[in-house]
Amino acid sequence: MNAFLYELRRAPLSAKFGCTVVLFYIAVAIFAPVLAPFGESEVVGYEYQAWSTENWLGTDSLGRDMATRMIYGARNTIGIALVTTIIAFAAGSAAGFFAAVMQGWVDQALSRAVDVVISIPTLIFALLLLTIFGASVTSLVGVIALIYATFVYRIARAVAMGIVVMDYVEAAQVRGEGLWWIMRKEILPNAAPPLVAEFGLRFCFVFLTISGLSFLGLGIQPPAADWGSMVRENASLITFGDLTPLIPAAAIGLLTVAVNFIVDWMLHKASGLKT
Amino acid sequence: MQHLFRLFVQRLALGLLTLFAVSLVIFLSIELLPGDVAQQVLGQSATPENLAAFRRELGLDQPAYTRYLSWFGGFLQGDLGHSLISGLPIKELIAERMYNTFFLAGFAALIAVPLAVVLGVVAALYRDTTLDKTINVVALTAISVPEFFVGYILVWLFAVELGLFPSIANLSEDASLGDRIYRTFLPAMTLTLIVTAHMMRMTRASLINLLALPYLEMARLKGASQRRLIVIHALPNAIAPIVTVIAINLAYLIVGVVIVEVVFVYPGMGQLLVDSVAKRDFTVVQTACLLFAATYILFNLASDLISIASNPRLLHRK
Amino acid sequence: MTQDTTPLLMMQNLQIEGLSEDRWTPIVKGVDVTLGKGEVLGLIGESGAGKSTIGLGAMGYVRDGCRFSGGTVHFDGIELTTADRETRRNLRSTRIAYVAQSAAASFNPAFKLIDQHTEFPVRRGLMSRKEARQDAISLYRQLQLPNPEEIGFRYPHQVSGGQLQRAMTAMAMACRPDLIIFDEPTTALDVTTQIEVLSAIREIVDQFGTSAIYITHDLAVVAQMADRITVLRHGSEVESADTASMLNAPQEDYTKSLWAVRSFTSAKKAAVSEGQTPVVSLKTITATYPGMGKPVLDDVSIDFHAGRTVAVVGESGSGKSTTARSLMGLLPPVSGGIELGGAPLAPDFRKRSKAELQSVQMIYQMADTALNPKQRIRDIIGRPMTYYRGLKGRQLTEEIRALLHSIELEPDQYINRLPSELSGGQKQRIGIARTLAAAPKLVICDEVTSALDQLVAEGILRLLDKLQRDHDLAYMFITHDISTVRAIADEVVVMQQGQIVEQGPKDQIFAPPFAPYTGLLLSSVPEMDPTWLDRVLCDREAKRA
Predict the structure, then answer these.
(1) Of A168, A176, A189, the CB nearest to C370
(2) B130 pLDDT higher than 70
(3) What is the pLDDT of residue A274?
């Protein structure tokens, strides 16, 4: 932890900015009930009220407090994206490591199956699966995690392939070590650093995909507050020159930029150490 | 040359095989549906007689493989089946929208591809200068915000504030080309912005990877200028990576199109797909997905073939 | 060796820094180099001495992430560190040229050799395209490339490594520069190919009276090529003198230590008694890679006896490492058998018992990739003890400490370190310790000293010899380095293209009369004597006549 803080102090401004923003979002998400002035889906007045001291960002199409929905939205949108990314990474890297160690037909079978899934555009496949399983939070998380697990599989497999050819893995294999040992002790510790940076990137994609689906009305369902659907519900205000509906979209963008800044910094550090 | 031809044929066969596998995945996904389509469409209150009649009408009483063969076989011959909800032939529903979507995507690609490649090369050439850093920050921001954010910002700026373009891209069927371009301008710009950012970043990265190779250091040590280094020495080797980048992004364009069409209420395939998902019109969703996937596979196939054709190791065998 | 009085190149107090972890650290710390017209200077030093950086600096070039931080580089009166880009660029090819270590990576894969050759003579207006092509062909001929008329019209991937290296020398000559920088041009080549490239380079440099800086880590090579030698270490000059006096009377201790070639030779061991069962025995094994028709190993039989070392020598592609992989069960032989203590051993390692796996252990060439960078020394050495011998707790720690002692590393200091916190030689010692931790019978040493600097390598050989005596180990010692074989082997196996061409006791193999291939191999190994190359070439010429 101290080492991390030391590194952070020497980090470029963009990375510091990124860390600050991410910490702020996490704080808002955790303390949402304390921070929010109203209840998540509480109707507090007329529709589309202007900004005031009472309703900082006005009210939405149903007369709910926009600021409150923004705060709860942080919790829902980030939380769901995070859970999805974690599931995708757990499943994808386990399968990727497995394929890399086993090689042969196991690898072929897994890789070709993944090729097929990847050759269907992400959002299109998500739409197809959501038609079938219906739009609920569980099916949303399951479907997006499944799709992104295929991308993680490819990366994890490529990283693990680079590690499997190392002599220390061969040494462990001819020592007689089992599959589980090799995946856990030889590959995982060495694959972790590149995968962490990748986790940041993939989180951004998952986050944007889920927001996109919510915007299309097929993601996180009302009355839960969510940034993507908030834009959709209030979009008509824009034609009157009011940009309030874009605040949730900007919030999505800000978080993604922040995460990207951190990832760029991590990648830069990783590549700098090689030379 | 014969060797090259064999590689080409192999890739083509692989493309067809992928298309076949994808069709199978799409078909089987629908089979996963709890209950069956008739139950889903007619609801819980439907009488057994109604259900049976509906199943017979759609051929649902047939075994799965027969239905798959007639669906995919029909698809290959251009017979796309009927909508579950409206009963209209899907071909009719799609034809006009397909044209519109390709028009929009093509419009965006026409601007985005050259722009992105040039920006990528410039950023790589002037690596770590202020120019490069500026381009990068702008690109990073553009890929970080959701598509609908970019779309609405353009609407606000160009339609609401400046009143230059319409905020809704409704098209009449017999619109002139000029009118089409005018009405499609904002959605096309939205797509262009996002795709250019993605593509430019990837172009820059693949060029910089290339520049670290020993033979490009050699070119520098032979006295090549920076421009000659990039244009003469690096670009011939960069065709494959750049084409791959373009293919990935054209494919990305297809996905981006869905959301942009919804923002601008544009009568394209994406809009149709989203509506059909909401209505749970399985046959339309199924066919639209296959069409999107087929386009995607086609782009990847084309990029593979170009990469093969530009690789001296494959062109000139030992 | 006629020399003009004004030097062609003069580097004074040259300092170059590199960016590492966001900080500028010195790579070259104030080096002076003077080079007369027509003179060849050898730059020699171990890895990390800054040789290549100085060589590139002579062209006014620093790699990305490096910078000139002091001193001057005067080339024929022009100061290169401060000259503008245009000036520096115009000198390259025409007046200063560069020959890189890996020709295969340094030719652009998209163009034919001859087009890369003629690019600059034509662009700088020295020759027409046609003249440049004619000239290229005549240079190819002088460098003894096969089919000089046609070879230039091939793409780099269609030409072998040794030929590419000569084509690159030809390309450097294209504009008849005053100075050529040779950056380890033969390091990546086999010895029998190296000798051809060396003689070609020397001949053409002599003929055109070109000045050259010849960078290498191989003393015997530089002795053949250079008029004068500068020894470098850690970015500073150790000493500099003409070749003869440098070889005969080195002044500095460091130089002397480099010159002291393989003072170590393992003591002679008693002959194997008649009828003694070998620890491991390869019986006429043949192996193929999947999908390849031609066997990579053909009818290979070797016996390994306790307490004795069998050295397997050969060039790259000879099958020496493949033999080891077959023995380990990584590439199961398709015919023939492997015996462990007289009993048959399964060809595939997955089918071998724990005790069988334990008996045969391997030490790898690159300690960097052989040790898991995320495991501590305690775990690296402790795991085989736990896995094979069931050691735990205090007993395990005691054993680890004892083993660290025996490989001459202080346990308290090293037991909790990561591999990245060790030097190259120390890592290799840990690699050795890991195999010993398994208490094996046969240890395969795969080029264990070839990635190490001379002094360190010698320490490793001494350690291996000591351990062999202490534990009565059988060694299979794979190497391409003949002097290592002379130092440590009891028996020698010479391999070529997957077959054994000769095998027997060391004294017999290394004494005349030689088998033809063994003779070629032995005579191709460079010797310190500056006249060696001439002598060998003369001999070969005489034999051919």
Answers:
(1) A168
(2) yes
(3) 36
Integer CA distances (angstroms), A60 to A55, A231, C177, in order = 10, 10, 77
- Determine contact, residues A110/A173, Cβ cutoff 8 Å: no
Of A150, A141, A132, whose CA–CA distance to A214 is shortest?
A: A141
Q: Is the peptide bond before A223 cis (omega within 30 degrees of 0)?
A: yes
Partner A contacted by C85 (CB < 8 A): no
C-beta of residue B233 within 8 angstroms of C-beta of residue B224: yes
Q: Which chain C residue has the Cα nearest residue B238?
A: C110
The three-class DSSP label of residue C268 is: coil
Q: Which residues share a beta bridge with C23?
A: C20
Residues in chain A: 275
Instruction: Give the tokens for residue C74.
Output: 């005067």
CA distance B227 to B234: 10
Which pLDDT belongs to residue C351? 94
C188: left (phi over 0), alpha (psi -120 to 50) or beta: alpha
Chains that touch C (3 or more CB pairs under 8 A): A, B
Position C5 scores a pLDDT of 66
**From its phi and psi, is residue C333 left (phi > 0), alpha (psi between -120 and 50) or beta?**
beta
Closest alpha carbon to A176 in C12, C357, C215 = C357
H/E element, C326: helix C320-328
Q: Which two tokens stand for residue C325?
A: 């992989």
Structure tokens that stand for C245 in this block: 């006096």
Check B140 against A257: CB less than 8 A apart: yes
Lowest mean pLDDT, pick from B275-289, C249-263, C396-410, C503-517: C249-263
Q: What is the DSSP string of A132-166?
A: HH-S-HHHHHHHHHHHHHHHHHHHHHHHHHHHHTS
* Helical pair B282-309 and B64-77, crossing angle rounded to 10 deg: 60
Contacts of C374 in chain A (CB under 8 A): 189-190
Does A156 score more than 90 pLDDT? yes
| The pair of three-digit structure tokens given for residue C302, joined into one six-digit string | 């070797």
Contact yes or no for B314/B239 (Cβ under 8 A): no
Kindly identify which residue of chain A lies nearest to residue C380, measuring between CA atoms: A168
Element (H, E) at B162: none
Residues 6 or more apart whose CB falls under 8 angstroms from that of A215 comprise A228, A229, A231, A232, B146, B148, B259, B262
Identify the pLDDT of residue B36.
Answer: 67
Upstream peptide bond of C513 is cis (omega within 30 degrees of 0):
yes
| Rounded-to-integer distance, Cα A120 and Cα B255, Å | 10
CB of C105 less than 8 A from some CB of B: yes
Instruction: Please say whether the beta carbons of B278 and B85 come within 8 A.
Output: no
The pLDDT confidence band at residue A79, using thresholds 50, 70 and 90, is very high
List the one residue out of C356, C359, C409 whose CA is nearest residue C380: C409
Task: Answer whether C170's CB lies under 8 Å from C138's CB.
Answer: no
Q: What's the confidence (pLDDT) of residue B231?
A: 83
**pLDDT tens-digit profile of C10-32?**
999 999 998 876 788 899 999 99
Give Rg (Cα) of chain C: 26
Q: Residue C3: what pLDDT?
A: 47
Q: Please tell me the predicted confidence (pLDDT) of residue A1.
A: 60
- Among C342, C42, C372, C353, CA closest to C181: C42
CA-closest candidate to residue A41, choices A208, A216, A229, A213: A229
Between chains, do B217 and C106 touch, taking CB under 8 Å as contact? yes
* Sequence-distant (≥ 6) Cβ neighbours of residue C541 within 8 angstroms: none
